[in-house]
Amino acid sequence: MTVKKILIVDDHQMVIDGIRSLLESQPEFSIIGESTKPLTVVALLSEIQPDILITDVGMPDMSGVELSRAVKSKFPAIKILALSMFGDTHIIAEMIDAGISGYILKNSGKKELIEALTKIAEGQNYFGQEITLQLIKSFKRSQEDIKANRP
Length: 151
Known about the structure:
The chain has six helices and six strands. The protein is an alpha/beta fold. The chain has one domain (about 5-150): Response regulator (Rossmann fold). Strands 2-1-3-4-5-6 form a six-stranded parallel β-sheet, sandwiched between helices. About 30% of the residues are buried.
C-alpha cells in the first residue's frame, strides 16, 4: 500500500483539526501539512509535495478556485479535493474548470471523505451525492431552457 500524502488548506483551524482527526486512523493517508493561509500554499507545495490537496472553496485573500488554478499550473500531478458549505453549481463548475478531482460538502461524514480521497488517489474523480444531484438539476434546467428557446 502506497501512503498518500495530504495537505489541508482551510481558513478555519477547527476544520483542519477535524479532518486531521478523521484521517489519523487511516493508514493509507498521511497529513504532511496544513495551512490557514492559502496565499502561502503554492510556495509550501515546492517543499512538501503532497499527492492530494484538500482545500476550502470560500476563503479570504485567495479563493479555492484561484488556489486550485495556481496549484494545477505549477504542480499538475497534485490531485485536489474541494470542500464547501455550499453546492452552488456555478462555483462547482468553476472549481472543475480549475482542475479539481473532487468536491464534497462540509456536512459530509468520515465515510464520504475517505471514499473521496480513495477515489482521487486512484486517479478517479469524486463528487458527493448532493453535488451530483445539484449538477444534474442544473443540467436539466439548461436542457429545458434550450428546448424552450428553440424556434
